[in-house]
Amino acid sequence: MDFVVSQILTGLSLSSILLLVALGLAIIYGVTGVINLAHGEFVMLGAYCAWLLQVQFGWSLLASLAVIFLLIAALGWLIEVAVIRHLYDRPLDTILATWGLGVMTQQIVRLTAGGELRYVQMPPSLSGSVDILGATDSAYRLFVLAVALGLFLATWCIYRYTSFGLKLRAITQNRAIASSFGINSARAYRLTFAYGAGIAGLAGALISPLKSVSPEMGTTYVVDAFMVVVLGGVQSLVGTLASSAVLGETSGLLAYYSNDTIAKALVLVAIVIIIRFRPQGLFAPRVRA
């Protein structure tokens, strides 16, 4: 029983990180159709903001989360205005532009903050462990799980039960018809991109006490995020949640019996096979004929 609970908790910990990283990408990709290869750099910038605010200004991680979300969201807003809004009907150019932004961001961070590994201190109030049915887990990892689920729930409620969410769903289905009804699709895209970027920055800040912070850290996370979104279904927030849980639990179990590298390789092979036979993803919403 202890082993089962321990494996479930390990899988949930991995799932919460996947959900945090993939949620922002799912929102941006699902609404705007932009394949944002710079998404990992938003995660990296959030981690660096957490480190900078802690080292230079003495802010605790918990106190800086809201500020980090707003800072990265503002950066996402500026990038959408300056670059992305000109490329919505040019998907290949969007891929190239966001890839270039990611490379440029990495180099700017390397030149300003240095290339050495940085570390963010875990909040003292969450540095202990919690006993659950005989298994022990980090209090901070449980906190990250709670935040990830809270962000998902807030995002889902905005998408399903607000007028802004109704406009997003209309734009997603048919941008031209939505615009003819007076919906400002440009403004909706801008807010969506900023919100997705802000969530990615928040993810980076929350991950930073668990991982070392470096200019290249975003590269790994953007691959994981795309795996989650593609497996779950591009326009399905619930699919993003479900695929995060499936991938997290599967990776945790495979890593226990082998190692992290083999586990990731096996998961990637499984995703390729699934997408071969179900390209719309496992949890894609049904479309009426």
Automatic annotation (TrEMBL):
This is Amino acid/amide ABC transporter membrane protein 1 (HAAT family). The keyword Membrane applies. It comes from the Bacteria. The keyword Isomerase does not apply. It is a multi-pass membrane protein. It comes from Shinella granuli. One of its GO terms (biological process) is amino acid transport. InterPro entries: ABC_transp_permease (IPR001851), ABC_UrtB_bac (IPR017779), BCAA_transport_permease (IPR052157). It is found in: Cell membrane. CDD domains: TM_PBP1_LivH_like. Belongs to the binding-protein-dependent transport system permease family. LivHM subfamily. One of its GO terms (cellular component) is plasma membrane.
